[in-house]
Design brief:
Mean pLDDT: 88
Order of helices and strands: HHHHHHHHH
Radius of gyration: 21 Å
Structural class: mainly alpha
Bound molecules: zinc ion
Helix content: 55-70%
Number of strands: 0
Distance between the termini: 49 Å
Strand content: under 5%
Shape: globular
Length: 287
């Protein structure tokens, strides 16, 4: 049975998107439970208000929100709109990252035994094709809960950062552009560099401006993007953070000294660099 390439893209697209919104649903759980010190696997999902277990249909990503009319069926607690938004965002970005780095053919190459379709010329499976995909995905899947938690509690929990560094380091061992040594240098420049900036700031201003969570998070970003990734993440996050900080200071009328959480800026800058790093560098140096 011949399948053409566009059909294959659509089939893969649907599966990748469904996978993405399911991960998004799990990331909501992670973002809710980690700061409260509840296990992310047990107990099963419950209403944050009445603590009663939610019905199965409510657990379906995005659709559950519609089926429940955005309410808990026991206590009428209003489910925040952020839940389906996080699910959709995770789904869309997962889909985007997949097609940015891979094609369905790359994936099919991993299963030569199952290949009976003769329409395509398959190459040999290369794990290296998957490395930039896993790097971006790992930045996305840790960045979303970290951003939510940072916005809500102004912390970046070690329970996400430490596994982030360890798994990031392991992925980098397969990354020919970085390797284990490049990853280690990234961790040191990331956390060491920001720690240094934080201390200077403290000396000059006499108060803490950069949290230790940000310091460790930049170490994590260094583990997957290397020292160059660290420099550009810090550069971008600072510029975007400063612009939004100023706008927020004006809109909220709280003044420019208002501290805003830095985590979401680090996360989005790291994601941009992991997906479009080469283009961003070319844009800066050739324009
Ligand atoms: Zn309830």
């Amino acid at each position: 049975m011949p399948i053409d390439l566009s059909t294959l893209n659509i089939i893969f697209g649907i599966f990748v998107f469904l996978f993405g919104i399911s991960i998004g649903s799990f990331l909501n759980v992670v973002a809710y439970r980690i700061p409260l010190n509840i296990s992310i696997v047990r107990p099963r999902s419950f209403c944050p208000n009445c603590k009663k277990t939610v019905p199965n249909y409510a657990l379906i990503p995005v659709i559950g929100y519609i089926l429940t009319h955005a309410k808990c069926n026991k206590c009428n607690y209003k489910i925040p709109i952020t839940y389906p938004i996080v699910e959709l965002l995770t789904g869309i970005l997962t889909l985007f990252i997949f097609f940015r780095f891979l094609t369905p053919i790359n994936v099919l190459e991993a299963f030569p035994a199952f290949l009976t379709v003769e329409t395509f010329q398959y190459g040999k499976f290369h794990f290296n094709n998957f490395v930039p995909f896993f790097v971006s995905l790992w930045i996305l899947y840790t960045g979303i809960p970290l951003s939510i938690i940072d916005l809500k509690y102004r912390i970046l929990p070690n329970k996400i950062i430490y596994p982030g560094i360890i798994i990031g380091f392991l992925i980098s061992c397969f990354n020919h552009n970085l390797g284990w040594s490049g990853s280690l240098i990234g961790i040191i420049t990331g956390s060491g560099g920001l720690f240094f900036i934080a201390k200077i700031y403290e000396l000059l201003r006499g108060k803490q401006g950069i949290g230790m969570g940000d310091v460790k998070y930049l170490g994590f970003i260094g583990a997957v993007l290397g020292w160059k990734g660290v420099v550009f993440t810090l550069f971008y996050a600072s510029i975007i953070g400063a612009i939004i900080g100023i706008l927020w200071g004006i809109i909220s009328k709280k003044g420019l000294a208002t501290a805003i959480p830095f985590g979401p800026f680090l996360a989005s800058a790291a994601l941009a660099i992991s997906t479009y790093g080469d283009e961003i560098l070319a844009f800066i140096f050739k324009n």
